[in-house]
Design goal:
With 134 residues, the chain is mostly beta strands. The protein has one domain. The protein has 2 helices and 11 strands, in the order ββαβββββαββββ. The strands form 2 sheets. The protein has a 6-stranded antiparallel beta sheet. The chain has a 5-stranded antiparallel beta sheet with strand order 5-3-4-10-9, with no helix packed on it. A hairpin with a 5-residue loop joins strand 9 and strand 10. The chain is elongated and about 75 Å long.
Length: 134
C-alpha cells in the first residue's frame, strides 16, 4: 500500500515547450558533391509541390534559384520522391559541370528563403557543412 504525505505542498512550475522549429518544419535544402539538391517535404509543399523545378545560377552573386516548373518545360528537372518522408531530390549535376562549381562537401542552406516570385534562393557562400568533426 502506498501512503501519501498530505501535509506536503508543492510549488509547481510549468516547463515551457521548446518553440524552435525543427529542420523538418523549417525550409530545408541541401546540395551534395554529386550535384543532388535535396528538399524537405515542407520546402517542396511551400513551393507549391511542383512536379519539376528550373535551376538558375547567378554566377556573380553565387546564388542558386529553384523555381517551380512543369515536367514538360524544356529545362525542367524532375522532383523525384525520396524515401517515405516526402522529401524531393533533383539531379542537377549539370549545374556543377557547366559552371565549374566546387562543392567540397554537402552544403545545407540554413538561410534559404522563397522570394516574392516564388523562387527558392540558395546562397552558395552561406551554408553549413554536414561533415562530421572529430
Amino acid at each position: 500500500m502506498i501512503t501519501q504525505d498530505t501535509k506536503r505542498r508543492f510549488n509547481w512550475q510549468t516547463v515551457l515547450k521548446d518553440t524552435r522549429q525543427t529542420r523538418w518544419v523549417a525550409l530545408y535544402a541541401s546540395l551534395n558533391v554529386q550535384g543532388q539538391f535535396r528538399l524537405s517535404r515542407t520546402t517542396h509543399e511551400l513551393m507549391g509541390a511542383p512536379e519539376a523545378y528550373n535551376i538558375f545560377l547567378d554566377p556573380e552573386e553565387m546564388v542558386v534559384g529553384l523555381s517551380p516548373a512543369r515536367l514538360a518545360d524544356k529545362n525542367a528537372y524532375e522532383a523525384h520522391t525520396r524515401g517515405k518522408n516526402g522529401g524531393r531530390i533533383l539531379f542537377g549535376r549539370r549545374l556543377i559541370n557547366d559552371f565549374h562549381l566546387y562543392v567540397p562537401q554537402t552544403m545545407v542552406f540554413h538561410r534559404a528563403y522563397i522570394d516574392n516570385m516564388g523562387t527558392l534562393i540558395l546562397d552558395l557562400k552561406d551554408f553549413k557543412s554536414t561533415r562530421k568533426r572529430g
